[in-house]
Amino acid sequence: MATTTRTSFESLRKGTTARVSSITGNSSETVRLQEMGLTEGTVFRVIKVAPFGDPIEIELRGYRLCLRKKETSNFEVEILD
Question: What structural domains does the chain harbor?
């Protein structure tokens, strides 16, 4: 049985595959990201991380998305690999 580690977007590194495990809050940024497909259970891969960790580029549902730390503060993820 594989183990998963829950963490925040800030700690993800290039090449990591993860899944959104929970979303809290309903700020306009959080709602917008959900509308763009970043919902609970969504699996994504980290493509790039800027030198200071902001922004982070992920690939999900066939497209790439760049996110700032502030935008992802309400998302908790599980590392899959």
Answer: 5-79 (2.30.30.90)
Contact 69, 6 (CB under 8 A): no
Digit-coded pLDDT (tens) for 35-78: 999 989 999 999 999 988 789 999 999 999 999 988 888 899 99
DSSP letters spanning 4-73: -EEEEGGG--TT-EEEEEEE----HHHHHHHHTT--TT-EEEEEEE-TTS-SEEEEETTEEEEE-TGGGT
Q: Which helix (H) or strand (E) holds 47?
A: strand 43-49
Q: Which of 49, 42, 52, 46 is nearest to 19 (CA)?
A: 42
Structural contact between residues 79 and 22, judged by C-beta atoms closer than 8 angstroms: no
